[in-house]
# Entry
Amino acid sequence: MHINRLSKNYQTRMSNLKHRYTPHYCAFHALRAILVKIPKTASTSVSTHMFMCDYEKSNLLWGTWAEPGQSYKHSAIMEIKKLCKGRQFSDYYKISFVRNPWDWFFSYYRHFKRSSHTARTNLVHQMFSKNPHDFPEFGEYIRRMEEAILAGVNDKRQDMHKHEANPLMPQYKYLVDRDEKLLVDFVGKYEKLQTDWHKICRELVIDNNMWKKRGSNLTIDDVLQLPRLNESRDNRVTIDGSRDGALVKKHYRECYTDEEAEIVYNLYRKDIEMFNYEF
# Structure
């Protein structure tokens, strides 16, 4: 559902808050929740809605807005923990979303291909031409990124466990401590985005009854309909280096050879096993 199909009340409120909104919020104090934003998992959609709900609930509970805590846009859970005060980290409900690694890897390819070189993070910037029109076809991209990721893991000069250095680090790395213990309370799936968002709403007591009692005009329909924001918008991006859009709508499975699918499996084996994914 596109955001312009939501209620006029919701749109007006988001418009009024636009100058104060940043997608880099991680701790939402009225909701008593923390969001770990793994890239390319609809995290912008989730954080936008959590921001709106937190603003509403904050005003309803306290009459003023307790501004959420900020971090780097894609901070891992351990980085967020360092920013928390008192018992926030232990008491807040910690949330994140993951995505099928093969689909996620292909989505990143489309994202990088349509981005200017200045928008690419370090690992990708170092690997490919500064001219986005010279970006390689998908198969070459997979093989070269495999080399770069494996080489980077052994390079002590770079912290390959941070998004800034390695945007393609495994998703589970965002969610675990140094002993690889999972630190989040709820891991939703991109493939079940709407269903899992409803579960989060129930856990955080985001419902009509609470808001009606306190006089909010925000409706539960506004909250439960989670629009896809910040999707890859360039429909001309294809897997073969051309830009005619002929392949853009293909399912990710159609974009891999058996060998390429195996490469992604080996790079993201732990994601696949931990979050129960298959090709």
Remarks:
- The longest strand covers residues 93-98.
